[in-house]
Design goal:
This protein is an all-alpha fold. Helix content is 72%, strand content 1%. The protein is globular.
């Protein structure tokens, strides 16, 4: 009896499957008693761990055959793999299939359009600042992580409220970059050891998508499946999913489309944890060289990849290279009539890392002023930079200045939440 309990506990199966599991335990124990090597047949284990809510394959095939668009969003449920596999692998496969069919179905049904290769693919559902809401969610959630690290718990909570207040608008718009931004955000949260925030955001997406888009919508399924996984497995699946978004854009709208390039560089710079730093640096450099040769050094898409490479240098402490690229970004931005704030921010962070704190603070203040002048006083990226500046002031011992800035920041957060 103890042998059966031990095996059942070891395999993590349900207690109501004891009869079947005893047979498996006997098959495993008998060769072991004779001194022979034992081997657990995990196909038998998985067979008894199937979920009750498993969707029948016949029902899915019938739904697809009756649909005018077999891979359309409103009728899609991913087919399970014919190969029996462990539950985490099966969930990962379902998510990848869902992403592929979601992208293909959205373009085929006209929900998404690729009108200009120099800009992002667009949604035809809601056009009211849908991409801005995505970036706001990302920037403010990342700022909340920094506030938690600095022990500003109240401000961090207000940041999360402000960030997640736009989730419903994001779901209704269904912008093509939604999953790309969401995967980057979740990966960042896990890298910062903030698993609880990532899971909370995924659950909010899943719950609101179920209400607003339907129980079988891919966005609901993908977020729900990710949230149901063990935290130790999510980041590995996110890496594969993030790479998949770039591959799908490449196949559907071409390798030089803005959405394809941004998804690719986001994967390399923010998400990928399988390649070492040298490999990722080389891949980003190759992507930049390819864009410069194909599109020209002043194309908006080339500037986007150059900016990502500068971020990568800054993140991995190659500060001299980051400052050099930051200066190039500023000069190109002035030539193209674009904002130079991103280049100033890169230079400021690199100088701060090299202990040039006074000049770094000046550069960052100028970058914040430029962002607010262009996008308004409630710009999410500018407010994120203010959190960074506040951390610098605390480390320098300017506690009163940091406290005053934090009060102003909290007031801005409350105003933004009311506006949304």
């Amino acid at each position: 009896k103890w042998m059966y309990k031990k095996r059942i506990r070891q395999w993590g199966v349900r207690k109501n499957k004891r009869c079947q599991m005893r047979a498996i335990a006997r098959k495993t124990k008998q060769p072991g008693d004779q001194g022979k090597p034992t081997r657990i047949d995990y196909k038998d284990v998985v067979h008894y761990r199937k979920r009750k809510e498993e969707v029948r394959t016949d029902d899915i095939i019938a739904q697809r055959s009756e649909s005018k668009f077999p891979e359309a969003v409103d009728c899609f449920i991913s087919l399970p793999s014919p190969t029996v596999m462990l539950v985490p692998m099966a969930i990962a496969e379902r998510i990848l299939v869902s992403i592929r069919d979601y992208y293909k179905g959205s373009f085929e049904t006209g929900t998404w359009l690729a009108t200009d290769p120099r800009g992002s693919c667009e949604t035809t559902k809601v056009k009211d600042n849908s991409l801005a809401h995505l970036y706001a969610l990302r920037e403010q959630s990342m700022a909340a992580c920094m506030l938690f690290a600095n022990n500003y718990f109240q401000a961090a909570g207000q940041n999360l409220i402000s960030a997640t207040s736009a989730i419903e608008s994001i779901l209704l718009a269904e912008h093509p970059m939604t999953l790309t931004c969401l995967f980057v955000l979740v990966a960042h949260m896990f890298q910062q050891r903030r698993h609880e925030i990532a899971l909370s955001i995924l659950r909010q997406f899943s719950a609101l998508a179920q209400i607003r888009l339907g129980d079988r919508h891919p966005l609901r399924c993908i977020c729900g499946w990710l949230a149901s996984m063990h935290p130790s497995q999510i980041l590995t699946v996110i890496v594969r999913c993030s790479e998949s978004t770039g591959d799908n854009f490449r196949d559907l709208v071409g390798p030089m489309n803005w959405s394809t390039l941004v998804s690719r560089q986001e994967f390399l710079h923010e998400v990928d944890d399988e390649h070492d730093m040298g490999d990722k640096t080389f891949l980003l450099q190759e992507l930049l060289r390819k864009c410069e040769a194909t599109l020209g050094s002043l194309d908006v898409r080339t500037c986007e990849i150059r900016l990502s490479l500068a971020f990568h240098y800054m993140k991995n402490q190659h500060h001299a290279e980051a400052v050099k690229l930051g200066l190039i970004i500023i000069s190109h931005a002035q030539y193209l009539g674009m904002s130079a704030a991103e280049g100033l921010w890169i230079i400021a962070n690199s100088q701060c890392a090299m202990n040039e704190t006074c000049s770094a603070e000046v550069y960052l203040r100028v970058a914040v002023d430029l962002r607010m002048a262009e996008w308004g006083p409630h710009d999410d990226r500018a407010r994120h930079w203010l959190v960074i500046l506040d951390g610098w002031l605390v480390r320098q011992g300017q506690l009163s200045t940091a406290a005053a800035r934090l009060l102003k920041y909290n007031e801005m957060n409350r105003n933004v939440t009311r506006l949304r």
